[in-house]
Amino acid sequence: MNYLEEYYNAYDEEGRLLSRHGQVEYLTTMKYIEECLEGVSNPDIMEIGAGTGRYSVTLAKRRLRVTAVELVEHNLEILRSKLDGTEPITAMPGNALDLSAFPDNSFDLTMLLGPMYHLYTKEEKLRALSEAVRVTKPRGHILVAYCMNEPTVIQYVFGMNHLREVMDLNMLTSDWHCISEPKEVFELVRTEDIAELNAAVPVKRIKLVATDGATNYKREYIDAMDDETFSKWMDYHFAICERQDLIGASHHTLDILQKN
Description:
Blueprint: H1 3-10, H2 13-18, H3 20-37, E1 44-48, H4 56-61, E2 65-70, H5 73-81, E3 89-93, E4 107-112, H6 122-134, E5 136-147, H7 149-159, H8 163-168, H9 191-198, E6 203-210, H10 219-223, H11 227-240, E7 252-259
Parallel strand pairs: 1-2, 1-4, 2-3, 4-5
Antiparallel strand pairs: 5-7, 6-7
């Protein structure tokens, strides 16, 4: 068993997305999924790294055709447990680095909402992005999620008093970019890292969105909000989530690409 399997076997990813603060990321991602599907009749959708199916199952229950590929068997079991057998979904094991089972130009929307969190070299990231682009139809959309560097520096390194530890372990570059290895589970990037990957594949960017923005800095306050206040928080979040001056401070971002 590797670090990734150990993490997801023990971690309640489903509970995170169902929490009040986790709902911000989920609702924001769904908003942009729906935007990408506007005007597309009978779309074919792929989710690479589908996790426990929060997105894939939701879309399949709307009667949309979905292919869900997931590396971790534990997650795949949870995903399948949500299905009653009537949904137009194919859920199968697979690796974001090798989608050779799927032909070129197959999907109207391809979602890579988790794998970039766990790929530690530029070569691996580019391979996963290239595969996602390859299986997408021309003019189709690719949604790619990333974990961002600065929130970890702000909250974990300084806010939780881990500065001495990460410095002793040489986990920071001189310009404060976190250095991750598989045992840290998550890989962290900056906006310029994302742009460098995009430049290597035949896509154009539609939008780069802060999927949770300021939410995770104040998660205890978000979780304590009543429905009316949370609704206003979402209004505020949607009003600022495309502001590029704020993107790098979001814990998660969503890169919305269109294949040339």
